[in-house]
Write a structure and sequence with these properties.
The complex is a heterodimer of chains A (178) and B (526).
Chain A: E1 6-13, H1 16-28, E2 34-37, H2 45-49, H3 56-82, H4 99-121, E3 145-150, H5 158-167, E4 172-177
Antiparallel strand pairs in A: 1-3, 1-4, 2-3
Helix pairs in contact in A: 3-4
Chain B: H1 29-41, H2 46-71, H3 86-97, H4 99-110, H5 120-141, H6 167-200, H7 204-214, H8 221-254, H9 266-292, H10 301-331, H11 335-346, H12 350-365, H13 370-373, H14 376-402, H15 418-441, H16 447-453, H17 490-494
Classes of the chains: A alpha+beta (178), B mainly alpha (526).
């Protein structure tokens, strides 16, 4: 019988401080395919893990400005080109009156961009994940902290990686099936 | 090492910041989760005592809206000269209430006011439900609500397009955007907590329902980076949005050429009033809720006091605006303007004006007294007066400015019909039905956010009760990174910090009442 494929090793920690220092060790050991899991964002953990800043702001900025430009253009097109009516003796392109809708369109598309790009970059929704096989992992949304090093990482070695995780003060290290 | 005498009955200090702890009793993360999800997992029978009357009022809403649609809006008391009667009063009332949630979630987030985490979930829910109530009224008020889509720029067989120079159309965009963004903001904040509910759910239905809405969230640090970025951006965009929405609502009045409406003070005055009424409603909901759900250690007196201070500030701003309106009506020398205001104070609707002034100007001034702003019962009573006063403010603005038209031959007196009253009462049914369903199925406290502002969420924190056990592993610090950690060697952590705010080591094993700072340096990451 073939051995079940392995997703990686899952280490459990009790406090954010322990997770923080463990992440520094795993980062310094040079792993790439690994991640930390916590019930809330731990401050400064992205530095301890050596993560880069998010690109969500750039996407939001571009799409927010696109929304504002689109909002202005549709008003201009309606009021000055497609359906020109003289209202309150204002010029067809009465651009000061177009400011509120331009602003709202920019905010609307920018907010969609922020949320949708966050989902996209995080590959959510992803209703199933190998880590959900681990029973103890259910506490990641309550009060426990985890590090998972994936078996696909070139530095992964079942024995050495386990030793590294144990040396970081993990409560428990377990192997998770893929 | 000195004994610290607490200044108030709140004993716990944040061991890292030295301020009164936001969450009292220094609970563990697990205890916070338990306290918040308990009302969902073991629902109280009293929930039905609130839900059934709310459903009753909702049926009244359905009935009255049905009748108004069937009969036409003549069933309401609106008529020339008061074409904007209660529907617009109720619209502005509800949309104003809907401003506190986004203020708490966005503006206080940008200002790093950590106390917002205990109240933001419920007030954002309040915002969304209040905006839903608000949206009912203009939609019904157009009369033929099945053609409400004419307000949107959609190609149609008439080749007609909406007039983008009208504040009423700006309002369509502002309120629709506000509702959408508030809903997204609320949902993004909910995802980690829905994952908590998913992981705790015992029933199959609960696992599937919470699981679907949690989108497979697993608390990954790589996800949190994008998540926090998106949340910050939503806050940054919702902040100007929340100010713009009520400004645009005020344009519905201010852009028209009617004495009493045509004033430049309206946008800031409406925004201050909206925040005032919204916080009033938050207090009305939260004060009973924290007792009922036994969350007094998470929504503490300090939270109520902070909200009361916001009410004091915005209430005083509103009082200033009332005074300035009167001053300008005299100082402008405009006879129409001064007539409208004299008529407001002493005319047919004098009683509405004085109810508004006493509720909105006098009520908040009680908050100057510390005893009153730290008393939940006193604040609850004050908040009811704020709600009443702010409804009357909109009534005064709409009705008293309209009922005496330019020609005395067109003067009239607005009287609401039974259907006006039924629609308003029914809208409370709509609001409370949604709010009670929210209380029944969704954590009322933003768990992930509350946990992140607890002292033990800080990597510097060392639990005094755990310290005697296995020593912490040697922290390894890369050069140039996380400078603050270089000072927090295990030796430093064992030294009691003598900064006058720390407690002596625990003489009794009672956790929570005795804490001490792990680290004398200020947390530079926090």
């Amino acid at each position: 019988m073939a051995k079940p494929r392995v997703y990686g090793l899952l280490a459990e920690y009790e406090t954010p401080g322990e997770l923080y220092h463990a992440c520094e060790k795993v980062r310094d050991a040079g792993y790439g395919a690994w991640d930390a899991y916590s019930p809330f964002p731990v401050h400064g953990l992205e530095k301890a893990m050596g993560l880069r800043a998010s690109i969500v702001p750039y996407i939001t900025c571009v799409l927010g400005l696109t929304g504002a430009v689109f909002g202005f253009c549709i008003q201009y097109w309606v009021a000055a080109i497609e359906y020109p009516l003289i209202i309150s003796a204002k010029p067809f392109n009465s651009y000061p009156a177009f400011v509120p809708v331009t602003f709202e369109c920019g905010i609307l598309l920018g907010s969609f961009a922020a949320v949708m790009s966050m989902f996209g970059l995080n590959r959510l929704p992803q209703l199933y994940h190998s880590l959900f096989r681990a029973k103890r992992f259910a506490r990641v949304t309550d009060d426990r902290f985890f590090i998972a090093i994936e078996a696909r990482d070139p530095r992964y070695d079942a024995a050495q990686t386990r030793a590294l995780l144990q040396s970081t003060g993990a409560l428990e290290v377990e192997e998770v099936e893929a | 090492m000195s004994h610290y005498i607490p200044p108030t009955h709140e004993h716990d200090l944040d061991p890292l910041e030295g301020r009164t702890a936001l969450i009292q009793g220094n609970p563990t993360f697990g205890e916070v989760t338990e306290a918040v999800v308990r009302p969902i997992e073991q629902p109280h029978i009293a929930w039905w005592l609130f839900f059934l009357p709310a459903l009753g009022l909702l049926s009244l809403f359905g009935l009255s809206v049905g009748w108004v649609v069937w009969e036409g809006i003549g069933a309401w008391g609106n008529n020339v000269p008061v074409g904007w009667g209660w529907p617009i009063v109720n619209f502005v009332f509800w949309v104003g209430i809907g401003h506190a949630g986004t203020l708490i979630s966005a503006v206080l987030f940008l200002f790093r006011q950590k106390w917002r985490t205990s109240i933001n979930r419920a007030s954002e829910a309040m915002t969304i439900f209040a905006v839903i109530c608000a949206l009912q009224f203009p939609v019904i008020h157009v009369g033929r609500l099945w053609v409400i889509y004419w307000a949107l720029p959609i190609p149609n067989q008439m080749a007609a397009w909406p007039n983008f120079r009208s504040p009423l159309l700006w309002d369509v965009f502002a309120v629709a955007t506000y509702f959408t963004v508030s809903l997204m903001f609320w949902y993004v904040g909910l995802i980690p907590d829905l994952a908590t509910m998913r992981d705790r759910a015992k029933s199959k239905i609960g696992q599937i329902a919470y699981g679907l809405f949690a989108l497979g969230w697993r608390g990954s640090a790589r996800h949190w980076v994008n998540y926090e970025s998106a949340y910050l951006l939503l806050a940054a965009m919702a902040t100007p949005l929340v100010l713009s929405v009520h400004s645009i609502v005020s344009f519905d009045f201010a852009v028209s050429q009617l004495p009493g409406w045509h004033t430049t003070i309206f946008p800031p005055y409406f925004v201050a009033g909206a925040i005032f009424s919204g916080f009033g409603m938050v207090l009305t909901l939260m004060i009973p809720l924290r007792v009922w759900f036994r969350l007094e250690h998470i929504i503490t007196i300090k939270h109520l006091e902070s909200m009361a201070k916001v009410i004091l500030l915005t209430g005083t701003l509103v009082g200033y605006a009332y005074g300035m309106e009167l001053f300008i009506s005299w100082y402008s020398g405009n006879p129409y303007e001064s007539f409208v205001f004299a008529n407001r104070l002493f005319g047919d609707y004098w009683w509405a004006y004085w109810i508004m002034t006493s509720c909105n100007v006098i009520t908040p001034q009680f908050i100057w007294f510390k005893k009153i702003r730290r008393s939940p019962i006193a604040l609850f009573i004050l908040s009811i007066f704020v709600n009443i006063g702010m409804w009357f403010e909109r009534f005064v603005i709409v009705v008293s400015s309209l009922h005496h038209d330019f020609l005395p031959s067109s003067w009239g007196y607005f009287t609401p019909t039974i259907w006006d009253v039924a629609t308003l009462l029914g809208s409370f049914g709509l609001f409370f039905t949604f709010f009670l369903l929210f209380l029944r199925f969704v954590p009322v406290i933003a768990l992930a956010e509350v946990k992140s502002v607890m002292p033990r969420a800080n990597p510097h924190y060392v639990d005094p009760n755990r310290r005697a056990k296995a020593p912490r592993p040697e922290p390894r610090v890369a050069a140039g990174e996380m400078v603050t950690h270089e000072e927090s060697t295990p030796e430093a952590a064992h030294e009691p910090a003598d900064d006058g705010l720390s407690f002596p080591p625990p003489p009794s094993p009672e956790p929570g009442t005795t804490l001490r700072a792990d680290d004398e340096t200020e947390d530079k990451n926090g």
